[in-house]
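Hi U.,

Before I forget, here's the chain from the pilot set. I'm dumping it here mostly so it's searchable later in email.
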Amino acid sequence: MKFILASANQHKAEELNVLLSAGNLEILPASEKVEVVEDGSTFQENALKKAKEYFDKFGHPTVADDSGLVLPAKPDILGIHSARYAPEYLDYKDKNNFLINEIKNLTGSDRDAYFICYLCFYISEEEVYFFEGRVHGVIADTQSGVDGFGYDPIFIPDGCDGKSMAEVSEWKMTNSHRAKACLSANKFFKEQR
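Structure:
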């Protein structure tokens, strides 16, 4: 089954094609970007908004992803606003440094965090499916690694011996929040056929 990705991001389409191949799903990048106002109060609402608006534009089944980093000790930052956090900084290296400084007084379990991904498969108005994936860890006090993007250099996943998400790219391909959401989607769509 083919889905248009509710994003013009070619890299994300390539990544999802790899992650969703076991479900016999093919992800096509959108031919043009659709401006979607992500004003939902949850990741699930924002994923649905994106999927529906791309479906309305292209008239074809779509898949949307809404992801972010959640820091429960500071619920007013990051979360659904992760991509828009510290908008004065365009580069994530600068955003990460700003975040490290903003939470420098947090210690112990207050630095616990998780990445979350919601995938929304919008086949029709009557047929919409959601899949969630999470990976837990802590926010580091320095950046490390070069293989990741976004907040990967400051996020240390549980079970990775203190290495950041940007240092464990092979592990990330099968254990990240997006990989876990895709694993659930693969299982579901394989059982549907």
